[in-house]
Specification:
single chain, 631 residues, alpha+beta, Rossmann fold, Elongation Factor Tu (Ef-tu), domain 3, 4 domains, eight-stranded antiparallel beta sheet, six-stranded mixed beta sheet
């Protein structure tokens, strides 16, 4: 069953609610004050099933909005998710102020389809009706409601003249509406919250994307709790699920009525992030005054109304009828994604001045060069492919995570992956998206870093992988590993254990350094377990102390020398001999104490204690009280 949402629009007392009742049999005025005063104050809802040309059923949901200028804010809460507009103009009054404002709002919200109904046709003669028709045609010329593409239907809710014609026109227009994406992430802007006895908290809204099912877990944005869906209604009827484009009521668990309000949005947990800054493309109505930098406005999108400050990109003001890029700084966070439409209204006197489309919901706090940033905004509005390419490019060497990509675009992982498949210059590295060019740049920086290290440390066999990783704090672990793998596979870099070095950059020593290395190694090798003090050995070398320390470091890294304690180094041969000596001692005594160890090895207590602790660490012995068990 195909669904479509029809929103009414038009001046007060032009018969919007009466027309909806004539079409559906449902009185959309639900408030006692509305019935007492005879005007619509808040948005109301109705529905109608009609046979479609394909033989199936078309379900139309009607959102009836108030026409009084004082209630335009309520009107805006109702029209955000509509598929087509039913512009209502009374034949006995023709075009009025709220006719114009409502029409401007629909254009700014980029409503693509609609029908114009000339109501109260029974109150005028044929000639007057024709004059009004001509006036309306002129008013709507070159718009989405131009008479050449959108029908103008005279009707009377009282006599029901033209009602069947209007139903047929609704069927024809609704048939042209593309289906909304039920596979997208779920978003339900809340327009009503109430409590039903025996059920608890209920919210209603137009499901603008995705699907909601019983038992689904949802999150309340911008900062509400997580909730569980107990029950689902679609157009007033119980259902197992609701799909995008349907009027939906949800019975929620885990939340009270007081925690919810119009303007909040239900969405999937852990996907979206509320934002109080939006980069947008805005258009000013030709009837508006110039919009200056830092002007405060009323921001309306879907069911939310928020105070906002306009920060223009590269401009000081926007003139009537002009378009510009801007950042809107909202008084409190909301949930919006690129492509969402909005309306701007003046603070005082309150009137609609413009609107536009969201381009970026996670703008940088530091814009930098305005012209470059405007180029970025122009690029992300072109297509999905260009939007993803631009965002990944802007992320640079840090890359764009898939979770960031989904939160910033509103795309599912599947859509993100399919878009990525058409951009060969982007690499997927784990959960990160990064340009191949950026990977190449990191690889060049890695080589330059190693080159500088080798030049400064000619006696060191390489740079530890952890130290090298620390030189790239903005690069993720996954991306760094990929760059290192590419460098190794390309023959530029080689790994030696935990050391990274440029290929062919082994340690090259000068004659006096090589001689000093031999002296150092020989001094410890011949000393056995009675090693000399390091400062005594270093004093006898021909190189300066700094180079001598590097030679020691090199011997330690090559495991020629082994550090047993902070001030004791032993040659590996001496420690191998000690292992064999312990194996021999085990054939005589399984246990050994410090005194026996000193007798067996011939060392003093100065060496005995550190060596025994070394043997414990190496699991050759295990301390038990004052003795060691030889393992």
């Amino acid at each position: 069953m195909k669904s479509a949402i029809v929103g009414t629009a038009g001046h007060i007392d032009h018969g919007k609610t009466a027309l909806v009742k004539a079409l559906t049999g449902i009185d959309a005025d639900r408030l006692e004050e509305e019935k007492r005063r005879g005007i619509t104050i808040d948005i109301g809802f109705a529905h109608l099933d009609l046979p479609s040309p394909k033989g199936d059923t078309l379900r139309l949901g009607f959102v009836d909005v108030p026409g009084h200028e004082r209630f335009v804010r309520n009107m805006l809460a109702g029209v955000g998710g509509i598929d087509l507009v039913l512009l209502v103009i009374a034949a006995d009054e023709s075009i009025k102020p709220q006719t114009r404002e409502h029409f401007d709002i629909c254009r700014l919200l980029s409503v693509r389809r609609g029908i114009t109904a000339l109501t109260k046709s029974d109150l005028v003669d044929r000639e007057t009706l024709e004059v009004v028709r001509l006036e309306v045609e002129e008013f709507l010329r070159n718009s989405f409601l131009d008479a050449s593409r959108a029908p103008i239907v005279p009707v009377s809710s009282l006599t029901r003249a033209g009602i069947e014609d209007l139903k047929q026109a609704l069927v024809q227009v609704a048939a042209e509406i593309p289906a909304r994406d039920s596979a997208a992430f779920t978003r339900l802007p809340i327009d009503r919250v109430f409590t039903m006895k025996g059920f608890g908290t209920v919210v209603t809204g137009t499901l603008i994307s995705g699907t909601v099912r019983k038992e689904d877990e949802l999150e309340v944005f911008p900062n509400g709790p997580q909730v569980r869906v107990r029950a689902v209604e679609v157009h007033g009827r119980g259902a197992d699920q609701a799909g995008a484009g349907q009027r939906t009521a949800l019975n929620l668990g885990g939340v009270t009525r007081e925690q919810l309000a119009r303007g909040m949005t239900l969405g999937p947990p852990g996907v979206f992030r509320p934002t109080s800054r939006l980069d947008v493309e805005l258009s000013l109505l030709s009837s508006a005054k110039p919009l200056k930098e830092r002007t405060r406005v009323r921001f309306h999108s879907y069911t939310s109304e928020i105070m906002a400050t306009v920060i223009l990109h590269g401009e000081k003001q926007v003139g009537p009828g002009e378009t510009a890029f801007a950042q809107l700084r909202l008084a409190h966070p909301t949930l919006l994604v690129p492509g969402d439409r909005f309306i701007l209204r003046q603070l005082s006197p309150v009137m609609t001045i413009g609107g536009g489309v969201v381009l970026e919901n996670t703008p940088s706090r530091r814009i930098g060069n305005p012209s470059e940033y405007i180029s970025f905004l122009r690029q992300i509005r072109v297509s999905n492919t260009e939007a993803l390419r631009a965002r990944v490019a802007a992320a640079g060497s840090a890359g764009l995570t898939l979770s960031d990509g989904m939160a910033r675009t509103g795309w599912t992982r599947r859509l993100l992956s399919s878009t990525l498949a058409g951009i060969p210059e982007i690499a997927a590295v784990g959960e990160y998206l990064i340009l191949n060019h950026a990977l190449d740049g990191i690889g060049q920086q890695l080589s330059s870093t190693l080159e500088a290290f080798h030049n400064q440390n000619p006696l060191v066999a390489g740079m530890s992988k952890e130290e090298l990783r620390g030189r790239f704090p903005e690069v993720s672990h996954e991306v760094f590993s990929r760059v290192l793998e590419r460098a190794v596979a390309g023959g530029k870099v080689e790994l030696a254990g935990d050391l990274v070095r440029l290929r062919g950059r082994n340690v090259v020593m000068k004659d006096e350094e090589s001689e000093s290395k031999k002296i150092l190694e020989a001094a410890f090798q011949t000393a056995g377990l009675k090693v000399p003090a390091m400062k005594e050995v270093l004093a006898g070398l021909k190189v300066d102390r700094a180079r001598a320390q590097k030679i020691v470091t090199l011997l330690l890294r090559d495991k020629v020398l082994v550090k047993v304690s902070d001030d004791l180094l032993f040659h590996r041969d001496a420690l191998d001999d000690l292992r064999r000596l312990m194996a021999q001692e085990k054939t005589k005594n399984v246990r050994i104490n410090v005194a026996r160890f000193k007798d067996v090895t011939g060392v003093t207590r100065k060496y005995a204690i550190p060596l025994l602790e070394y043997l414990d660490r190496e699991r050759i012995t295990r301390r038990v009280g004052d003795e060691r068990v030889i393992l």
